[in-house]
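Example for tutorial group B:
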C-alpha cells in the first residue's frame, strides 16, 4: 500500500519522533486495510490546541493524547483520504512518564490507536475495546514494543 502521510507541527520538533518513525507506525496500523493508496494527515500540537479541539468536537475541556477525525467522501465519490490525527505532544510525554513507558513506545501506541479509530474501531463498549486492544497489542509487538496495557 502506498501511504501519503502529511505531518504538521504546531509545536517545536525537538524531542519528537522522526517522520520516518511516524510513517513506520502508520504503515503498521494500516496493515490489512484493503486499499492501494491511503492519504493521512497527522498534526502534532501543544496543550492549548488539543484542549480547544477536544472541547469543540468532544465537549471535554482538557487536552487529550490523540484525536481522530475520519474522512467521509461525499456519496458517489472515491477518495484515498482516511482522515486526520491530532496528537498532543505534552500529554504523550506526560503519560509515558507517569506510566513508566518509553516515550517512543507511547508515541507508537498513539499513532496506532488513532489510526485504528480512523479505520472504524472503537472502545466505547467492552467487547469492542477488547477487539481494539488486542489489535493494538499485536501491532505494537510487531513493531518491537511491549503491551501498552500492562504497567
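The residue assignment follows.
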Amino acid at each position: 500500500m502506498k501511504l501519503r502521510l502529511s505531518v504538521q507541527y504546531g509545536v517545536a520538533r525537538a524531542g519528537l519522533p522522526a517522520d520516518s518513525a511516524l510513517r513506520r507506525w502508520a504503515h503498521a496500523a494500516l496493515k490489512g486495510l484493503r486499499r492501494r493508496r491511503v492519504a493521512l494527515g497527522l498534526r502534532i500540537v501543544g496543550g492549548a490546541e488539543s484542549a480547544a479541539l477536544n472541547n469543540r468536537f468532544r465537549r471535554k475541556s482538557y487536552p487529550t493524547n490523540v484525536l481522530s477525525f475520519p474522512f467521509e467522501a461525499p456519496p458517489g465519490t472515491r477518495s484515498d483520504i482516511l482522515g486526520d490525527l491530532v496528537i498532543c505532544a505534552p500529554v504523550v510525554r506526560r503519560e509515558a512518564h507517569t506510566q513508566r513507558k518509553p516515550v517512543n513506545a507511547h508515541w507508537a501506541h498513539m499513532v496506532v490507536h488513532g489510526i485504528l479509530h480512523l479505520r472504524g474501531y472503537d472502545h466505547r463498549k467492552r467487547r469492542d475495546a477488547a477487539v481494539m486492544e488486542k489489535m493494538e497489542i499485536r501491532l505494537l509487538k510487531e513493531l518491537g514494543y511491549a503491551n501498552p496495557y500492562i504497567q
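The first helix runs from residue 19 to 29. Compare this with the pattern of hydrophobic and polar residues in the output above.
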